[in-house]
Design brief:
The structure holds 4 protein chains of 4 kinds.
Chain A (H helix, E strand, L loop, with lengths): L2 H24 L3 H21 L3 H30 L10 H21 L15 H9 L3 H22 L4 H5 L1
Helix pairs in contact in A: 1-2, 2-3
Chain B lengths: L8 H21 L3 H26 L3 H31 L13
Chain C lengths: L2 H23 L8 H26 L5 E14 L3 E12 H24 L6 H20 L3 H19 L6 H32 L4 H9 L7 H18 L8 H4 L5 H10 L1 H11 L6 H24 L3 H22 L2 H28 L12 H4 L1 H15 L5 H19 L7 H25 L10 H8 L19 H12 L17 H5 L24 H13 L5 H12 L7 H12 L1 H24 L5 H7 L1 H8 L4 H72 L7 H24 L1
Antiparallel strand pairs in C: 1-2
């Protein structure tokens, strides 16, 4: 794989990611947004691959596309169907929002491009790092790993608890 | 095209910046709670990109591991957030966050 | 201690003993203790007479002088001065001996007289007590050897005169008069006191002896003007006590006291104290001071005489006559006729006491009628009184063969001599006033004699209202008042009159009825040498320094008078010729010389003036050629001017008294309203400040708190608009801030 | 000895505290016994006092206590103040010629005051406790030689005085009491400041510590040169002198700080007036002589003229104000102001004659004015009014009273033969001898005349002449056919009764005796005053 091919593929995925992300944001239809988000996640996952993080990319696809996005879609469906309203969203703060968007992006980019100390070091990650991830998870990051597991469990239980249907009189009290 | 060829750190950072900006914009301007959640996911992804990019170009594993945890947390967040949204919907009969202004009182 | 000193101390303390006994025990003694007073005074007089005998008759030395003193106050070792003591002492010289005898004699006679005059008064005993303390004070003045004790007794004399004048204190006029007398005397006293202070501040001693020694040694460090001032201020004491113009106003009012008191203190002794005091300080008086004294004396003599002409009250006539005669004495001292003035002091004391006691007898006999207009014809009823009164009147008027003639003539001769020496001009005013006053004296005394003793009784002419009013104060005498029989007084009142009248005849004092200088008095009392030394005095004190400027001025005057010798030689000749007047001061020598030369002119002029006066009185009152009432109408302004005593009382009332009262009211107002007002104002301000502080607390401090709350509230009200309750709005704001920080950060980077 | 004389009344007060308040007679007798014991002690001190020792200050070479007598010196308060050094306050009592005179006066007037308090009926127990406290504090002031101790006594005096006027006074008593209190407090605040400044400026030559000892303070050699009130700090010394002077002048009271006095006198009951005029006013001038002048001699010399002028104003202004008064007691109060002016004038003379005169005047004013107030109290008891115009002709009906009044009045106006004269005379002699105050003295002499004027005028209006139409008493004809007067609701003797005579006769005798032969008192004070004059003289200053 030549550098040029590599580059073209990178730009392709970059454009996919950004365009779909833009669509997520600017689309008026929630359903469209949700589906557009699918492409964003995929694009991001591809970029992960470019960043030698294939395991993360896989995880991204599994978790985001398989979990979060489904969850989102389910939420969209769930709420809209009941309300029977249009699947469109209004916007507010469009002017300050735009200004801030432009400003923050500009500022970030300015920072990135003017900061020269971020020159990549010689020691880069190459190839698959799955093994190293496993190694790190069980050594240095075992405690965060365990905490995240518990957190995830708690979050799932909590979510289930929050989302369950209560009887109307109970909610009022 | 020559200058495009070496894909460096800045490319990823640029993408992440745009992603972050879009996510932020969604959070700021969208009335629909679910779209806001989507914006949050975008922001998290932008962060992930950054972590991984820096990790790659510095050769450390910290960024990789962090991105992994972020993904986990994002999942948990999404679950909780959706539960909340559903609860909000149950109470206010709407997911329009602009109509939810009980904090005003 | 000399035996005479011991005796004099006894004399001094005896009247005090009388006072102490009578003031505490008069009600427990028979006859209210009057015999105690009379007896004690009798012994005092006996001792005084012995002293007089020893000093004047046996010793017969003009320079006789014994002194004794003791430490009264010891101020210890004073910083910058050394040991300092205030000493009190007694001095006896010829003058003292004479005065001692005179005072005790008159006091004794007055005591005796009072046993008749005051009989029946409810405060009879107290009266004698007061006489005792008065005599004590007066003797103290006479015996003192220093200024401080003179001042002490001076004030005590003031006190006793206060007590005696106000003896009938239930009468408002008496109460007024006593207060007036004391206050007017005090005004004089402060002058005297300042004079004492000037001398003390220089020499740190009060003793005459030491002051004169220091002065003669030229140790007076202040200017000559201060010395003149000291003399004049000391003289002010005399002005007060001896009732000289302008402080003469108390004396006529003092006639409110019982008549014997008037005789004692306002004719014979107390008023003489002033003259006596000036004689004591005579040596330190500068010529300037003497001039002032002479003019005051002359003016007083004249003014009082003019007032006496028109008075109707028998005692007031005598009172003004006293003032007038005191003016003569002061005039005499002022012109340097030292011996003559003191001579007049003694002669006047006797005949004026006689006159007052005589008037007292008349008043007593007339049942306390004092107005001469309602008297008349008493000659037949009261022959003893008439005789003695007339004799004393002749002495007062200055007819030859009387004592008054000799002394008055000596003074007037001295005045003429003085005027000549001082260069004439305005100084001739002094003898002129003297002679004119002599004529007036003869006139008003002739009027008095005639109105009282001759003609028919005019008692029935008196308006009734006035009559009763005059008697209310003397309730004790009311019972035998209806009987209008006038008869001679009893022996105890008659005897003093006779004794005093006898002492008004010339031979007591001098063998030559025309020249007192040949008598023992003038020989014993010499003009003392002045101590105003050359260091601070422009008049030379020694013959060597005779060529001083003043002498140069005086020379032509003397030459014009016809003196061929130089004044110093003249003085020396005079002294050697007579063997007595050894004047150290050529000025004094000159005056004495000129006075001697003027002796006979003075006799002639004064005799003529007296005769003119008496004839005038005869013309007006005896032969009625001139109707006094019509004349009075013709010169009504002058008449009123005289009748109202030159309006001095009114002037003083309008100026000093009103002024003081008004000033005191103003100051009191000032005190309560301004000073106290300021204090209360400060208190008020403090309270206001407290209130203001309270308000400040309430409105400003509290207000600040409330304002903060208010502004927070307002800001909150504004800001709550921003609180939409929408999370996204908050996010926008948050990010705006973040964005703002970016902008800030990058601008920082740029610069 | 001195402790005993100071604290005896307080002990009596404690005894009274134990007596039930219904036992009025016992309370009075205990107080009287204490006062008499104080008097005996005062006589013992007087007899034991050696008049040849000057006191005032400790000269070089002598004993560090100076030649004070009956000295009692104990450490009282000793505090370590860290960086500020230590605070050494001593219980230091002693007398010299200046204070021994005042001790005698205080004992005398206190005893008279107890007798005069006999008629007090309201809350007798409280009254006498406060009275004894006051007596102690006054005595303490005069014998204290430690500035701090002096200040304690000085302030201690205020409180009972405030209550004695404020509770047992006349109709306007609260106003007068507060006025008195504030005035005096105003003065003492400054005194406190100066006292502290002096403490840090003076070194006790014996111990080397700072000291409050007035004996040490009176010696200029003991000052630290650069301290706040040291000799180099000229301006602060002037300021300190001035404020201290004002503090004492309020007590004197000096024009224009005098207005508390007439009010306080008019409202105070008779015994308190006696104490106030007899002793308290003296504290002002005593303070000047003991503290103000010897501590700042050079400032004293620079301000002689000012003090003299204030003295003259006091004399003449007081006399004029007295002339205008209708209330007899107010007149006497103003006469006090006038007479205290003589003291100021004498002090301003700065020489022995003036100072002796001033001190003697303090003593004489104490006795004479006490007599005046007692006499005013006598007539007030009977007539319940003090308006001069409400009387007239009293001399005919109350001859003994009239005699006492006459003597007292004449003593007050300075008649020779009575003690007031000698002091006034010496004041004038001194003031005139001093070149600085010569002209002031010449003006002040007018005070003699006006003093006589108001006293004689009041004497005339009240005692001479006839009963007035609107007089405060009736004229009745008695059994013996003579006219008498009758006061409404007065049951006692018309003329002076035994108790009143007991109070008045000693004062009268003292007044007359000291007027004729002043050496018993003057002999005590001359040595000390000479020393004081020497300390104050410019030669003694560096």
């Amino acid at each position: 794989m030549s550098n040029l091919t590599y580059t073209i593929i990178f730009y392709l995925f970059a454009v996919i990611t950004l365009c779909s992300a833009a669509f997520v944001v600017f689309s008026k239809n929630v359903i469209y947004s949700a589906f557009s988000l699918l492409f964003t996640f995929f694009g991001v996952a591809a970029l992960y691959v470019f960043l030698s993080a294939d395991f993360i990319a896989v995880t991204q696809v599994v978790v985001y596309v398989g979990g979060i996005l489904v969850l989102l879609l389910f939420g969209v469906m769930f709420t809209k169907s009941i309300m029977n309203t249009e699947m469109q969203t209004d916007v507010l703060h469009i002017v300050p929002g735009t200004l801030i968007l432009a400003g923050i992006i500009g500022a970030l980019l300015y920072t990135f491009y003017t900061t020269h100390t971020w020159m990549p070091s010689n020691k880069q990650l190459y190839g698959s790092i799955v093994e190293r991830i496993g190694y790190e998870t069980m050594s240095h990051f075992v405690l965060p790993f365990e905490m995240v597991s518990i957190l995830l469990l708690a979050a799932l239980i909590g979510a289930a608890f929050l989302a369950r249907f209560d009887k109307p009189d109970k909610t009022k009290s | 095209m020559e200058h495009l060829i070496p894909i460096g750190l800045n490319h990823y950072l640029t993408i992440s910046a745009f992603l972050f900006g879009f996510g932020l914009f969604a959070v700021m301007t969208r009335k629909n709670a679910i779209v806001i959640l989507m914006g949050v996911e975008l922001i998290l992804n932008a962060a992930n990109i950054n972590f991984l990019a820096f990790s790659k170009y510095n050769g450390g594993m910290g960024g990789v591991m962090f991105s992994l945890f972020i993904i986990v947390i994002a999942a948990a967040e999404a679950a909780i957030a959706l539960a909340i949204v559903i609860n909000i919907f149950k109470i206010f009969k709407s997911v329009d966050v602009s109509s939810i202004d009980t904090m005003k009182e | 201690m000399h035996s005479l000193i011991q005796l004099s101390i006894v004399v001094l303390l005896l009247p005090l003993l009388s006072f102490v006994i009578l003031i505490f025990f008069n009600r427990r003694l028979p006859r209210r203790g009057d015999f105690v007073g009379v007896g004690i005074l009798g012994s005092a007089f006996a001792i005084s007479a012995y002293i007089f005998w020893s000093v004047i008759v046996q010793t017969y030395d003009p320079a006789f002088r014994i002194a004794w003193d003791f430490t009264w106050i010891d101020l210890g070792n004073v910083h910058g001065i050394g040991p300092l003591q205030v000493r009190m002492g007694i001095v006896i010289d010829n003058l003292t001996a004479i005065m001692l005898a005179m005072v005790t004699l008159i006091s004794l006679l007055v005591h005796l007289y009072s046993t008749g005059y005051m009989a029946g008064d409810k405060n009879y005993g107290r009266y004698f007590a007061f006489l005792g303390i008065f005599t004590f004070s007066m003797l103290g003045i006479v015996l003192s050897d220093n200024l401080f004790s003179i001042y002490i007794f001076w004030e005590l004399v003031g006190l006793s005169s206060y007590l005696l004048i106000g003896f009938f204190f239930e009468k408002q006029s008496a109460a007024d008069a006593q207060k007036k007398a004391f206050l007017v005397n005090r005004v004089g006293d402060i002058g005297m006191w300042l004079g004492i202070l000037i001398l003390y501040s220089q020499f740190h001693t009060f003793s005459f002896e030491q002051i004169y020694a220091n002065l003669a040694a030229g140790k007076f460090a202040m200017s000559n003007a201060w010395l003149t001032a000291a003399g004049l201020l000391l003289f002010m004491g005399c002005v007060g006590k001896s009732a000289q113009f302008p402080l003469h106003i108390w004396l006529p009012d003092a006639m409110e006291g019982p008549t014997p008191v008037s005789a004692l203190i306002h004719a014979a002794t107390m008023v003489a104290a002033g003259v006596y005091f000036v004689a004591r300080i005579f040596v330190l008086l500068t010529p300037d001071a003497l001039h002032v004294i002479a003019f005051i004396g002359a003016f007083t003599a004249f003014m009082a005489a003019t007032i006496a002409i028109t008075q109707n009250d028998i005692k007031r006539v005598l009172a003004y006559s006293t003032v007038s005669q005191l003016g003569y004495m002061v005039l005499g001292l002022g012109v340097g006729a030292y011996s003559a003035a003191l001579f007049h002091l003694v002669t006047h004391a006797f005949f004026k006491a006689c006159l007052f006691l005589g008037s007292g007898a008349i008043i007593h006999a007339m049942h306390h009628e004092q107005d001469m207009r309602w008297m008349g014809g008493l000659r037949k009823n009261m022959p003893w009184t008439f005789a003695t009164f007339t004799l004393a009147t002749l002495a007062l008027a200055g007819l030859p063969l009387t004592s008054g003639f000799m002394s008055k003539d000596a003074i007037l001769a001295g005045a003429i001599g003085f005027a000549q020496v001082e260069g004439g001009g305005v100084f001739y005013l002094i003898p002129a006033l003297g002679f004119f006053s002599a004529m007036l004296t003869a006139f008003y005394m002739g009027r008095q004699i005639w109105l009282v003793f001759f003609g028919e009784s005019r008692t029935h002419l008196k308006p009734v209202d006035n009559h009763h009013h005059g008697h209310d104060a003397h309730g004790a005498h009311d019972d035998h008042h209806d009987a209008h029989e006038v008869h001679e007084v009893s022996w105890n009142m008659r005897a003093p009159l006779v004794i005093l009248a006898a002492l008004s005849i010339f031979f007591v004092y001098s063998p030559n009825p025309l020249d007192g200088a040949e008598g023992w008095f003038m020989k014993m009392i010499k003009t003392p040498a002045t101590v105003v030394g050359p260091a601070n005095h422009n008049c030379a004190t020694t013959l060597v320094k005779a060529a001083s400027p003043l002498m140069a001025e005086a020379l032509p005057a003397v030459a014009a008078h016809g003196a061929t010798d130089s004044p110093a030689v003249a003085g020396g000749e005079h002294a050697t010729a007579k063997g007595e007047h050894a004047f150290a001061d050529p000025r004094q020598a000159e005056i004495a010389h000129a006075a001697h030369a003027a002796h006979f002119p003075a006799i002639y002029i004064s005799s003529i003036m007296v005769l003119v006066g008496i004839s005038l009185a005869g013309v007006v009152f005896v032969f009625k050629i001139i109707d006094p009432d019509k004349t009075a109408q013709a010169i009504r302004p002058l008449y009123l001017f005289s009748l109202n005593k030159w309006y001095w009382d009114e002037i003083y009332e309008a100026t000093f008294i009103k002024g003081s009262v008004v000033l005191s009211k103003m100051l009191s107002w000032f005190d309560t309203n301004v000073i106290d007002g300021m204090v209360n104002g400060v208190a008020f301000l403090v309270r206001k400040l407290a209130f203001a502080n309270n308000s400040f607390d309430k409105y400003v401090v509290d207000g600040f708190v409330n304002f903060t709350a208010f502004s927070v509230n307002t800001t909150g009200a504004v800001l709550r608009k921003l609180q939409t309750g929408k999370v996204q709005t908050y996010v926008v704001m948050l990010l705006l801030v973040v964005f703002g920080y970016f902008v800030f950060y990058f601008t920082r980077l740029l610069y | 000895m001195l402790s005993l004389i100071v604290f005896l009344p307080i002990i009596a007060g404690l005894v009274i505290l134990a007596v039930p308040s219904s036992q009025k007679q016992i309370i009075r007798i205990v107080s009287l016994l204490a006062a008499l014991a104080q008097g005996v002690l005062a006589v013992l001190i007087w007899r034991g006092y050696d008049p040849s020792l000057p006191g005032i200050t400790a000269g070089p070479g002598g004993s560090p206590l100076g030649s004070f007598q009956f000295v009692e010196k104990l450490p009282w308060i000793s505090l370590k103040l860290g960086g500020l050094g230590s605070l050494n306050i001593e219980y230091f009592l002693g007398v010299d010629g200046i204070s021994v005179t005042m001790v005698i006066l205080t004992a005398l007037v206190s005893a008279i005051g107890v007798l005069s308090s006999w008629t007090i009926q309201k809350q007798v127990k409280g009254y006498f406790i406060l009275y004894n406290l006051l007596a102690s504090a006054m005595m303490g002031c005069f014998v204290a030689l430690d500035f701090f101790l002096f200040y304690v006594f000085w302030e201690l005096m205020l409180l009972p005085m405030y209550f004695l006027i404020g509770i047992w006074g006349g109709p306007n008593r609260e106003y007068a009491a507060i006025k008195f209190f504030l005035y005096t407090l105003f003065g003492s605040v400054f005194m406190l400041l100066v006292m502290i400044g002096l403490y840090f400026s003076v070194i006790d030559p014996v111990t080397g510590n700072h000291t409050f000892s007035l004996v040490a303070m009176a010696n200029q050699a003991n000052y630290i040169k650069s301290a706040i009130l040291g000799p180099d700090n000229v301006m602060w010394r002037y300021v300190a002198f001035s404020v201290l002077f004002v503090g004492f002048a309020i007590k004197v009271p000096m024009f224009p700080f005098h207005t508390w006095l007439p009010d306080a006198h008019v409202e105070a009951p008779t015994p308190i007036s006696v104490i106030l005029a007899g002793v308290l006013l003296k504290l002002g001038t005593y303070g000047m002589m003991r503290i103000n002048f010897p501590l700042f001699p050079e400032v004293f010399h620079a301000s002689l003229y000012v003090i003299g002028i204030f003295g003259a104003i006091n004399i003449i202004y007081g006399a004029f104000c007295a002339l205008a008064q209708q209330d007899l007691k107010k007149m006497v109060a103003y006469s006090s102001i006038s007479h205290m002016g003589y003291v100021l004038l004498g002090l301003a003379a700065g020489n022995t004659e003036g100072m002796v005169g001033a001190l003697y005047q303090m003593f004489n004013h104490g006795t004479i004015t006490a007599m005046l107030f007692l006499l005013v109290g006598v007539i007030y008891d009977r007539a319940h009014t003090r308006q001069i115009d409400k009387f007239g002709g009293l001399a005919s009906y109350m001859p003994v009273y009239a005699a006492f009044v006459t003597v007292a009045w004449f003593a007050s106006l300075g008649l020779p033969g009575l003690s007031g004269f000698i002091s006034e005379a010496f004041v004038f002699v001194g003031a005139f001898s001093s070149v600085t105050t010569r002209y002031i003295a010449m003006v002040s002499v007018l005070g003699i005349v006006f003093g006589a004027a108001y006293l004689l005028w009041s004497l005339q209006r009240m005692f001479l002449g006839q009963r007035k139409q609107d007089a405060a008493y009736d004229l009745v004809v008695g059994d013996d056919g003579h006219e008498h007067i009758h006061f409404h609701d007065w049951k006692g003797k018309l003329d002076l009764d035994g108790r009143e005579l007991t109070m008045l006769v000693p004062l009268l005798v003292i007044t007359i005796f000291l007027g004729i032969y002043p050496m018993p008192i003057l002999g005590l004070i001359t040595t000390s005053v000479n020393k004081l004059v020497e300390v104050l003289s410019p030669l003694a200053m560096r």
